[in-house]
Amino acid sequence: MTQPAATTTTDFSRANPHALATILDASQTQKIIAARDIFDIGGTKLWARDLPVSQALQRKLMDRQLKEPLESCLKAEDGVTARTLADAIQALLYDPIPLAALLHPHADALLREAAVLPVHPVAQLLLSASRASSPMRFQHAVHAMALNGALMLAQGGNSADLRAAMLCGLLHDLGEMYIGPEFGEADAERTLDILSYQQLVVHPHVGSLLLKQLTDYPAPIAQAIAEHHERLDGSGFPHCLNGEQLSPLGRLLAVTESTLAALADAQAPLSRAGIALRVVPGEFDLHWVGLITQVARQQPPAVAHCRADELKSRVAKLSEVMDAASDAAAALLHETMSDDLQGALALTEYLLNRLRRGLTTTGLWQVDPVAPLNVAEVEAVEGELRYRLRRVERAVRLRAGLLTDQDTQRLDRVCQRLTIGI
Q1: Strand partners, 49
Q2: How far are the Cα atoms of 355, 359, 361 from residue 231, in angstroms, in the given order?
Q3: Secondary structure in 3-state letters for 239-269
Q4: Residue 47: beta bridge partners?
Q5: pLDDT by residue (tens digit) across 384-410?
Q6: 48, exposed or middle or buried, with CB in 10 Å at 0-12, 13-18, 19+?
Q7: What does each C-alpha distance from 2 to 189, 259, 316, 395, 401 come to in angstroms?
Q8: Which of the four pLDDT bands, split at 50, 70 and 90, describes residue 370?
Q9: Is the dihedral of CA 244, 250, 252, 256 positive or negative?
Q10: CATH number of 82-296
Q11: Domain ranges of the chain
Q12: Is 0.85 topped by the overall pTM?
């Protein structure tokens, strides 16, 4: 039987093993100590104030419910500060990467705000642990902080707007520390199989709960973090929210996160992000997308990596896969099935129709063999649609949840069509 979509009832009364492992790993290179005595729910003292964390603490915390969340009881004495964040943005501005083109017009304001950004002790602990144990994760947080702030400034946001936007970017992936480390890589969403994907999808919810329960950050920031993988068309995760349900900061953060994902390859031009944001109409807030594409158009053109005839063949295959999956779903409609399977099949057709719009509205079939710039753009579009098609299979299985063996076999027939040759 299929597994249900991952959920969480995190209340932080027990030490999360993944977050604790990250903190312990970080303690090898920086000083992380108990900020106060640590007690279990029964009043037994487990660890004394000012003692450094160690493997002994991990053993004492095993299966213990705590009087206060562990995250509120620890501090990183030489960890991340607002000055650290400003220095990180300063270094980013000198880094010759496509993202810098979006940041440079707003460099002074970003640096000023970063230097006074309020870093709550719990956030400081987790950011410090992330920086020490997973520098790429911390770098991603800095990139998101800077880009989210730059986009807010580009549309005329005031000081309060800028601060909220930068905090959203900085804190949006803290929930990744509470899942297995293999699920929290920058490009994980593009590469994980369905069972692993079920673990990844909970991190926005965990991150939002973390801020609500353990910090005093404003509620709109926690809400945006919960929404940073949602999409206006309802195709995101973890809750498949749609445009009417998404907050303004959540819409912004979704664009920032997707832009950084598109630029995860250091060789990717900024135009790749513009294409990723526009390839399937209705996924993202066009106001924020327009700010990205406006800058992208001013950058050097992308270079194609394949011939036009090869690209046409790949586009044709993509269309065939979509048609085969639709036919497989339609063939099941006359059969008796559960409501969950019916919902999954309806989602399949809805998402495939959106991909077909991407094929149509981007003019993907119009590949001119003598126009290399056109070929490069179509190549990027085709790659993004191929990635979206893999997402359809995972979204459909998550929507289906726990099925009977018979319904699982039926859904398998559809999902197999989605992944053949992709």
Answers
A1: none
A2: 14, 19, 19
A3: CCCEHHHCCHHHHHHHHHHHHHHHCCCCCCC
A4: 38
A5: 888 888 888 888 888 887 888 898 899
A6: exposed
A7: 20, 32, 32, 13, 7
A8: very low
A9: negative
A10: 1.10.3210.10
A11: 17-76, 82-296, 308-419
A12: yes
